[in-house]
């Protein structure tokens, strides 16, 4: 689990058309009704200025549209062309929604927009345009031409639009040759530009200096020309993931002028090192799935405001993250190192680090002081490394007093590590080689709410008496896929979810769940239960039980729930 708070990109469709609210009903008791408005057949006109012809499979532009229309929705139809004479007379239009039709560039006449001098929002995404309109009105604020086949835009498509704020051109076929150098000349208010999923080979020059969000992911960009981002000093989010960037495609000035940049995504490229001259304002740096072998401390020294650093799936080896390399990042919250080749937990990490994510590395040793420099660490993920119990120091976890989640799944541990912090809420030890549960190793974990011990080699005799005694807050216990022959006794009273599937349980006695009156879900799938294996009284005290899964046993098992329990058991046969 990755505890990251990252910005989300939602560009899957056009924004909702304004002015489509439901019409208000007339007041009851009115003595006279206004004359009905003229409205195209099958369309709806909830207001005098709104015409909604959405999703009617129209093949022809509707007639009888009032000249007073300000908001016209024709999305989700089968229109192939817009007649000039019909569109040009709608001079009051502010919103034109043509999303998801069959419009070609030939069917969208340039001159049709000349009379739409008040148009502010145009949505033509998901059509068949091969080139953008040569002219769009000067009044435009939002233009969505995404998901077409556009190979070329023109100087007055988006140029000379002083009110233009957002342009969406993602999922087209634009190359650098199809973007004129003056594409945004005179449009000094654009804050969002999406050019993702096109065919760009380098970052386009002459982008609007007003930009705050720039989406260039999923192109073929191998180079950011020197000075290409020197004027975009307001840029806050820059998405360059899934390109072909190498170290030679960037230089020391590439990001140096971006004094407001907060989010930079360079993942899925071919970088061998961390970029230089990162701005102090940067909060999220995503460098996952590159070819980085070594992190140079000097490269990160300027990015002192960094909160989230993602370096997963690189080639960081034993010396890839030198001691203290990240110490300048005093405010770092999350360090993500999934899928590298690290052999130990990096030393001298920032003291305020809250989440360290290190699964699928080669960590074999945890020394007494390896984790001592991070007193505020709340989440530690060391799953699927090469840890063995003999090489985990008994005091390795003791300094982590703020730790709430510890994931040690998929290692080679034969016993629960000692000295676990008393404030733990979640402990994951599945897929190890545990053969014993010793009460003293779980002592003091009185805040533990979830414990996973699945896929080990535990038998009933390996669980020491009193093992569960101190786990009084435990709500979820996963003992699935072990070698248990019956339900372990004296389970914690707070338990709500119990996983026992994939064991060797052949009998459930009448007192099996006396200690767990709050149980809501019980999983007994794929054991050795027969039709009469469960005592009729076994569930009598479980008034909250709503799920009992007994599928995959040798015989169908009938479960009798208490009269007041919710009746949603799952029973199954072979």
From TrEMBL:
Keywords: Leucine-rich repeat, Repeat, Signal
InterPro entries reported for this sequence: Leu-rich_rpt, Leu-rich_rpt_typical-subtyp, LRR_dom_sf, SLRP
Entry-linked SMART domains: LRR_BAC (SM00364), LRR_RI (SM00368), LRR_TYP (SM00369)
Signal peptide residue numbers: 1-19
Region span, Disordered: 13-39
A GO CC annotation given for this chain: extracellular matrix
Keyword Acetylation appears in the UniProt entry: no
PANTHER family cross-referenced by the UniProt entry: AGAP008170-PA, PODOCAN-LIKE PROTEIN 1
Name of this protein: Podocan like 1
Organism: Neovison vison (American mink)
């Amino acid at each position: 689990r990755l505890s990251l708070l990252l910005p989300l990109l939602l560009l899957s469709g056009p924004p909702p058309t304004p002015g489509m609210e439901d019409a208000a009903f007339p007041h009851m008791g009115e003595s006279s009704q206004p004359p009905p408005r003229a409205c195209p057949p099958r369309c709806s006109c909830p207001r005098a200025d709104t015409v909604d012809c959405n999703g009617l499979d129209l093949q022809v532009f509707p007639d009888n549209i009032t000249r007073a229309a300000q908001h016209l929705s024709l999305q989700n139809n089968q229109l192939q062309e817009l007649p000039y004479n019909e569109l040009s007379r709608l001079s009051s239009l502010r919103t034109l929604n043509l999303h998801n039709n069959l419009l070609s560039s030939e069917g969208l006449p340039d001159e049709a927009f000349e009379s739409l001098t008040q148009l502010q929002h145009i949505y033509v995404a998901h059509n068949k345009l091969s080139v953008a309109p040569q002219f769009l009105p000067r009044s435009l604020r939002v233009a969505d031409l995404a998901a077409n086949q556009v190979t070329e835009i023109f100087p007055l498509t988006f140029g000379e639009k002083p009110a233009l704020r957002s342009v969406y051109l993602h999922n087209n076929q634009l190359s650098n040759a199809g973007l004129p150098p003056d594409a945004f000349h005179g449009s000094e208010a654009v804050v969002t530009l999406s050019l993702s999923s096109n065919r760009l080979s380098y970052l386009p020059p002459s982008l609007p200096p007003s930009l705050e969000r720039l989406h260039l992911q999923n192109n073929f960009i191998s180079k950011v020309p020197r000075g290409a981002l020197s004027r975009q000093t307001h840029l806050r989010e820059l998405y360059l993931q899934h390109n072909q960037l190498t170290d030679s495609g960037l230089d020391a000035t590439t990001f140096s002028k971006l004094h407001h940049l907060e989010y930079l995504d360079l993942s899925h490229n071919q970088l061998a090192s961390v970029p230089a001259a990162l701005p102090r304002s940067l909060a999220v740096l995503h460098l996952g799935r590159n070819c980085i072998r070594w992190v140079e401390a000097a490269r990160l020294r300027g990015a002192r405001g960094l909160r989230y650093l993602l370096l997963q799936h690189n080639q960081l080896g034993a010396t890839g993250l030198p001691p203290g390399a990240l110490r300048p990042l005093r405010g770092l919250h999350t360090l993500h190192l999934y899928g590298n080749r690290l052999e130990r937990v990096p030393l001298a990490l920032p003291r305020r680090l809250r989440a360290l994510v290190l699964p699928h590395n080669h960590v074999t040793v945890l020394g007494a002081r390896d984790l001592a420099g991070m007193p505020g660490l709340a989440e530690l993920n060391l799953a699927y490394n090469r840890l063995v119990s003999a090489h985990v120091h008994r005091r390795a976890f003791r300094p982590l007093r703020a730790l709430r989640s510890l994931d040690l799944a998929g290692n080679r541990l034969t016993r629960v590590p000692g000295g676990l912090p008393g404030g733990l809420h979640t402990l994951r030890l599945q897929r190890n080689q545990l053969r014993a549960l010793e009460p003293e190793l779980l002592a003091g974990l009185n805040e533990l709410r979830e414990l996973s011990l699945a896929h080990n080699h535990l038998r009933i005799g390996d669980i020491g008496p009193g093992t569960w005694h101190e786990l009084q807050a435990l709500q979820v216990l996963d003992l699935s896929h072990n070698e248990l022959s019956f339900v372990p006794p004296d389970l914690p009273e707070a338990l709500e979810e119990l996983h026992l599937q994939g064991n060797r349980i052949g009998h459930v006695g009448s007192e099996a769940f006396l200690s767990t009156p709050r149980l809501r879900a019980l999983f007994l799938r794929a054991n050795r239960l027969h039709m009469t294996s469960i005592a009729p009284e076994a569930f009598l005290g479980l008034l909250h039980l709503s799920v009992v899964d007994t599928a995959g046993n040798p015989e169908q098992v009938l479960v009798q729930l208490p009269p007041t329990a919710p009746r949603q058991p799952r029973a199954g046969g072979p």
